[in-house]
Specification:
The protein has one domain: NCX, central ion-binding region (A middle domain of Talin 1), CATH 1.20.1420. The longest helix has about 35 residues. Helix content is about 80%, strand content about 0%. The strands form two sheets. A two-stranded antiparallel sheet has the order 1-2. A two-stranded antiparallel ribbon has the order 3-4. The protein has ten helices and four strands, in the order H-H-H-H-E-H-H-H-H-E-E-E-H-H. It is an all-alpha fold. A hairpin with a 2-residue loop joins strand 3 and strand 4.
């Protein structure tokens, strides 16, 4: 009983680290965006996304090094579904925002390129070999270079009326970004480790924990950053973070894990006699992103109904994982 109290205490400390880290991280990122005259969506899709994807990188790389490729695989896919159908859906349902198609197009295109590579590994080879990991990491590098180049070439018009953005010194913006990222990473680790222990104590199966709870736990930085950015009026930063984080889950998280140790596609859960990962998880990972991004690219804005539909899809997905 005493040990469980310690687990709960560490869980709460992790949550507090995430909340404060997300607050500082958004302040630093939005400040840099204004200072460098780079669109917030670009900052969200690069710097912020790397920071909030650190927990997935650490969890998946550690799991791969220990020979548990299933966690690395499930964590990446589950995080994309969670980011899109839960976290992004919440922000869209609460406050739909306008989208700049020019800034939005690059991360979306790269996401679907990465998803196509993922499908090749899953459906053609049935495994992720080390060379695929290096290809995914190369896509990550190309995306970062292209995004930064485009951001500097087509600077956004920066609003100067936001309090604090122009008054914060550069060193404070960088410090807020770094310290915020560290707190987010530490907090996410505490939540995942101790939350998994709590779930195990409650009798939740390991396979369900890996696909849902670990994915949700490592996606908490995106949730905290999205909610914080939304509260501070930086909806573009929030949206860019989600799209960038989804891309990084495929090219950076999976790329690092596969480069460390190749693994086969896990087949622990079946659906209609087939691997549930191939007939449900991967198709859903692609469909929810298409449903969120493609209409936004065409209309230049998000609609509240998109968020509501995505939340319903995520609820159904969780019900399936736990009860079927």
């Amino acid at each position: 009983m005493q040990q469980m109290w310690l687990v709960v205490l560490l869980f709460v400390i992790g949550l507090l680290c995430l909340i404060k880290g997300g607050d500082w991280f958004v302040d630093g990122a939005s400040g840099l965006a204004h200072r460098l005259h780079i669109p917030e969506l670009i900052i969200g899709a690069t710097i912020v996304s790397i920071g909030t994807t650190l927990p997935e990188v650490m969890v998946s790389s550690t799991a791969a090094a220990q020979g548990n490729g299933g966690i690395a695989y499930g964590n990446a896919i589950g995080s994309v579904i969670c980011n899109t159908a839960l976290i992004s859906a919440l922000t869209i349902a609460i406050r739909p925002s306008r989208v700049d198609p020019k800034s939005f197009r690059t991360p979306v295109i790269f996401y679907f390129i990465a998803a196509a590579l993922y499908c090749v590994g899953a459906y053609v080879f049935g495994s992720f070999e080390r060379w695929m990991g290096f290809i995914l990491l190369a896509v990550f590098v190309i995306y970062m270079l292209l995004t930064i180049y485009n951001g500097k070439k087509h600077p956004d018009e920066v609003e100067e009326d936001e309090e604090g953005a122009k008054d914060m010194p550069l060193w404070k913006e960088i410090a807020a970004l770094v310290v915020g990222a560290v707190l987010i990473a530490v907090g996410a680790r505490l939540l995942v480790d101790n939350g998994t222990l709590i779930a195990s104590a409650l009798g939740v199966p390991d396979s369900v924990i890996a696909v849902t709870f670990v994915a949700l736990g490592t996606s908490l930085p995106e949730l905290v950053t999205a909610v914080t950015a939304l509260a501070k009026g930086h909806s573009a930063l929030s949206l860019g973070n989600i799209v960038g984080a989804n891309l990084f889950n495929l090219v950076l998280v999976s790329g690092c894990a596969t480069a460390i140790r190749p693994f086969e596609i896990p087949a622990e859960k079946m659906l209609f006699g087939h691997n549930a990962s191939l007939v449900l998880d991967i198709p859903l990972m692609i469909l929810v992103m298409a449903f969120m991004t493609l209409p936004a690219l065409k209309r230049g804005k998000l609609a509240r109904v998109q968020g509501i539909v995505l939340l319903c899809v995520y609820a159904a997905y969780i019900v399936f994982q736990f009860f079927f």
